[in-house]
Amino acid sequence: MIQLHGIVKTYQMDQIQVQALRNISCHIEKGEMVAIMGPSGCGKSTLMNILGCLDTPTSGHYSLDGVEVAMLSDSQLAEVRNKKIGFVFQKFNLLPRTSAVDNVRLPLLYGSDGNNGRKRALEALERVGLGQRAGHKPNQLSGGEQQRVAIARALVNNPSIILADEPTGNLDSRSSRDIMGLLSQLNRDDRITIVLVTHDAEVGSQAQRIISLRDGQIIGDSPVQNRKDGGI
Amino acid sequence: MKATHVVRTAGTGLTTNKMRSTLTVLGVVIGVASVIALLSIGRGTQVAITSNIQSMGTNLLFVGPGAVSQSGVRSAAGSAATLTMDDAAAIADSTAAPAVYAVAPQVQAGAQIVAGNQNTRTQVIGVTPEYSWVRNFPIERGDFVSASQVQRASLVVVLGNSVAQTLFGLQDPVGQPIRINGLQYEVIGVLKSKGGSGFGNSDDQVIAPITTVQRRLSNQRTTSGAKTVQQISIQVAGASQNEAAIQQVTAILQERHRIAPGQPDDFTVQSQQDMVQALQQSTSVFVIFLGAIAGISLLVGGIGIMNIMLVSVTERTREIGIRKSVGARRQDILLQFLVESATLSLLGGGIGILLGWGISRMIGGIRLNNATINTVMSLDILVLAVSVSAAIGLIFGLYPAYRAARLSPIDALRYE
């Protein structure tokens, strides 16, 4: 479902051109759980932004579900982000002073079908096990709980892909295990494609496949041998 | 995105920082309120002036001495002494001027009036009996000047309402003596108050027979030695005959003053409508000027909105990034910020209208230095204020909203 071919991303910084990605090509099939790993500065986040349609490549082809992303307008990209992709960030990125349920509901407000949005948001919170805390605001929730709200927000529009950028980066080990367990479960039970960026080998080993990046190039792409299935 | 959500989102954005939103709204409130208050004063002044002129009577023409040039020196209009009682009598001739219904010549002079231990300085206007109804001066008590008193140049006066009050207080002045320039006059009547103010206050005057004023108070003469009159008020037979009357009066006076065709007239004929028009023209400049001053404060209020919205966009960069990452389009973000600034300005506009209206009602009728402030509130002033404040919200909100909408989602998410 994700096809990357010859993706190049160059940033213009003052006079210097920085190549963040050079010639990335790979396929990710529906229902896969893939970890992108590599040292910081290797281009993981840039690749993630391109996959998430937050950014466009300088050259190369990216097709998502058979649609060439480069051909999409700004509004169409927004619609892709709204319908097909769910984001989970390292810093949770919840709206402050806004209750969990309203945060989860946010994508529905920008979609065309905004009806019974509150009900759907509550269902999504149930799925991540936070049904009881719907009215709490982010500052009243623990880090792990905030990340689960973020996952519920990613889930609410029934996306085909969840992109998780260092989802456990700000969490303690216990919460990390919970979050990874939740993601694995969504992948296994709901067949949601999951792409996650991490530099934690422990976290990476819970994926089915690891793509290793260095200096903007893929240096390794292999299935995980003795996969730890992070059940809850 | 549904309208209710847009409004709710904007509401949340504004209530998050209540103090700041309130102060921003205050800027617009002051702007709108001052526009409304000042425009209503301007409009009130216009209305007052117009009704002042209309209270002089109906269908009037005014003939005054005009610019004359004697041996090449042209003097200003009104400075010459060219009109006489005979001119007035000639205009009153119904065969030569059928469109003229009545004629009321007048002379006037300033004088110190003394009654007992009270005194006041005012204009003494010399008139004929016609003046009372041509110029619409009904009597409250006593009598107006009679034809025989004019013939005999009797020492009698009719007091304007405020003059009567100044000199006699609550006492009835009719029959009482007063002194003007050392001569004793008898008060024969008091005029009804017209409630005029400032411009040509018609309550502050004294009326006497025209012959008396010519003999005792004013000694202006024409070049041929005849006694002059300063103005001739003419009542036209009907509104439709205005033009005809002007032509007839002009023809009579040109013949009597021996003005050759092509020579400039030594008199001017002005109709009441001309006066209203001229005054309205000059006061509309005054109204525009007031509006412009108030408009500046409205502009400052608008800049306040822009400032706050720019700060808000910067502060909420991360929020914008989050919204974009979950599918908000550019126009969704644009709309959100536009609705916020429009809400600020419309709220300010609404409160400003109430405040401006209140101010206008409060100061209307206040007397300052013998002049009353008149205020008139009209729909077009309100419509103007509302539309200007809405426009200000949109115009000054557009740039911050555009900046917000254009933010790249990645940069916005990374923003600390």
Describe this structure in words.
The complex is a heterodimer of chains A (232) and B (416). In chain A, 32% of the residues lie in helices and 28% in strands. By secondary structure, chain A is of the alpha/beta class. Chain A has one domain (29-53, 71-223): Rossmann fold, CATH 3.40.50.300. In chain A, helix 6 links the parallel strand 7 (161-165) and strand 8 (193-198). By secondary structure, chain B is α+β, with helices and mostly antiparallel strands. A 6-stranded mixed barrel of chain B has the order 4-5-10-7-9-8, surrounded by 4 helices. The longest helix of chain B is centred in the C-terminal third of the chain and has 44 residues, at 272-315. Chains A and B meet through helix 2 and helix 3 of A and helix 1, helix 10, helix 11 and helix 13 of B.
Kindly report the spatial arrangement of strands forming the biggest sheet of chain A: 6-7-8-3-9-10
**What string gives the helices and strands of chain B in order?**
HHEEEHEEHEHEHEEEHEHEHHHEEHH
| Terminal-residue CA separation of chain A | 28 Å
Q: Given the C-alpha coordinates, what overall shape of chain B results? A: elongated
Give the class-level CATH name of chain A.
Alpha Beta
Total strands of chain B: 14
Strand order of the largest sheet of chain B: 4-5-10-7-9-8
Radius of gyration of chain B: 32 Å
Topology-level CATH name of chain A? Rossmann fold
> Level of helix content of chain B?
40-55%
Mean pLDDT of chain B: 86
Beta-strand share of residues of chain A: 25-35%
What shape does the CA trace of chain A take?
globular
